[in-house]
Design goal:
By secondary structure, the chain is of the alpha+beta class. It has one domain: Outer membrane efflux proteins (OEP) (Up-down Bundle), CATH 1.20.1600.10. The protein is built from 11 helices and 4 strands, in the order αααββααααββαααα. A 4-stranded antiparallel sheet has the order 1-2-3-4, with no helix packed on it. Helix 6 runs antiparallel to helix 8. The longest helix has about 70 residues. The protein starts with a helix and ends with a helix.
């Protein structure tokens, strides 16, 4: 988790972004809506609930197993003095007394799987939110580009009008007018391309958020981040959900080794049967059954070695995950530094190009510059402004990438105005394997009905 000073600043930034939501949609609005309407999150929450049920299934192995059966049959030839149809019913019960701890180890292993699945759900949540941020900033970027392109068309139109006026009085040649006309046609073509890019960005926004963007999107606020990449890496290696998932997978593999070892020990079960025939005569028997392997051709030993190999693979995956997290944090900070440097450079370039464009335009009115000089200067000015817009957006987006690389780009960390999904709520209802007829089982039915109705 980020230190409180980062979270406080983050809350302030997103609150500022939400202000004026009546005028335009903010990033906080988009994140909240996307979180609440994400099909991918719903899919993985369902997978988590399925993992929760595996704990209940494992827990049920500790409880008695009671079954009933009934038969009705006829014999041909029928023995003298017997009924045509003979029937019986019986109830059997079975309880494991000793299994070397296999069942309890199974519960522990499934609990580790549940914790790993919860961490996986957090990673999916971060992917969903980062995609929303990226879709949001891309719409903003393309909206700015379209605005710049339209302004560019307007400016070149003025240059064309000026060139035609000067051509009418003999100050320039027909070539100058043709150059302006060609540049205008190019500007209109680039405007159409920018509008197409905006349409694609808006389509991605719909896919990421679940609804079309508002009539205008507010500027994206940068979020507070750790002061250095070293500090961010240290925080990520303490609590990144990908690392926690890998750790729980290693723990589950270790437990499964101990569980596999119990296959070599004997099992003891208590069994009982109550049988009732068609004369209502009953028989009861209770007994203890013990058994275990003697020789299975090395199958059990092979299975044990296989689980050990999977444990080693999980340990290797843990190392790879930790290194990947460090690399992702480093890359995110490098991207941020590049974006900051680019933004500083483009700010200076815009200021210089503005001055150059205005100067060349004035010189052209005095006959010291050609129409081509003015068009080139205007194009350079446009390119500088477009590059500055892109660098500013990249700088802001980089801060969210850093949060994602650190593992803290979640609805809870961002303080989104949503009901945070509690992964332990369903687990608490099913962990002790309630029956469908119990009050807890009926509560589960109501929960599932509510989920299915959404």
């Amino acid at each position: 988790m980020l230190p409180k000073r980062f979270l406080t600043g983050l809350t302030v930034c997103l609150a500022f972004a939400t202000a004026g939501a009546a005028r335009a949609e903010s990033l906080a609005d988009a994140l909240a809506y996307g979180y609440e309407h994400s099909g991918l999150l719903e899919q993985n929450r369902a997978l988590l609930r399925a993992a929760d049920e595996d704990v209940a299934i494992a827990f049920a192995a500790l409880l008695p197993i009671i079954n009933w059966s009934a038969t009705a049959q006829t014999n041909n030839p029928r023995p003298l003095g017997t009924d045509l149809i003979q029937s019986s019913a019986q109830v059997t019960a079975e309880l494991t007394i000793y299994d070397g701890g296999a069942n309890r180890l199974g519960i522990e292993a499934q609990r580790e799987v549940v914790l790993a699945t919860r961490s996986q759900l957090l990673q999916i949540e971060q992917q969903v939110l980062l995609r929303i941020v990226q879709a949001y900033v891309n719409v903003r970027r393309n909206e700015e580009f379209v605005s710049l392109r339209r302004n560019n068309v307007t400016v070149i139109n003025r240059q064309l009008s000026a060139a035609r006026d000067r051509f009418d009085v003999g100050e320039v040649t027909r070539t100058d007018v043709s150059l302006a006309e060609a540049r205008l046609a190019s500007a209109r073509s680039l405007l159409s391309a920018a509008e197409g890019d905006l349409a694609q960005a808006q389509a991605e926004y719909v896919a990421a958020v679940g609804r079309a963007p508002g009539s205008a999107l507010q500027p994206v606020p940068a979020v507070p981040i750790a002061q250095s990449a070293e500090q961010a890496r240290a925080l990520a290696l303490r609590s990144h959900p990908a690392l926690e998932e890998a750790q729980h997978q290693v723990a589950a593999a270790e437990i499964n080794i101990r569980r596999a070892e119990t296959a070599f020990v004997p099992n003891v079960t208590l069994q009982g049967t109550v049988r009732l025939d068609d004369e209502f005569d009953s028989t009861q028997n209770v007994g203890i059954v013990a058994g275990g392997p003697i020789y299975q051709g090395g199958r059990l030993s092979s299975q044990l070695r296989q689980i050990m190999a999977r444990r080693d693979a999980a340990r290797g995956a843990l190392i790879v995950t930790a290194r990947q997290i460090e690399q992702n944090v480093t890359n995110a900070y490098a991207f941020l530094e590049v974006a900051r440097a680019s933004r500083d450079a483009f700010e200076r370039q815009v200021a210089a190009q503005r001055q150059a464009f205005e100067g060349i335009r004035e010189e052209a009115t005095l006959g010291a510059r050609t129409t081509l000089d003015v068009l080139d200067a205007e194009q350079d000015f446009f390119d500088a402004r477009a590059n500055l817009v892109s660098a500013q957006i990249d700088e802001t987006f980089a801060t969210y990438q850093i949060l994602s690389a650190m593992g803290v780009l979640t609805a809870e960390d961002l303080r989104l105005n949503v009901q945070i999904y509690d992964p332990s709520a369903y687990y608490d209802l099913v962990s002790d394997a309630p029956t469908i007829t119990s009050e807890q089982g009926r509560a589960l039915d109501r929960v599932l009905e509510a989920i299915g109705g959404n």
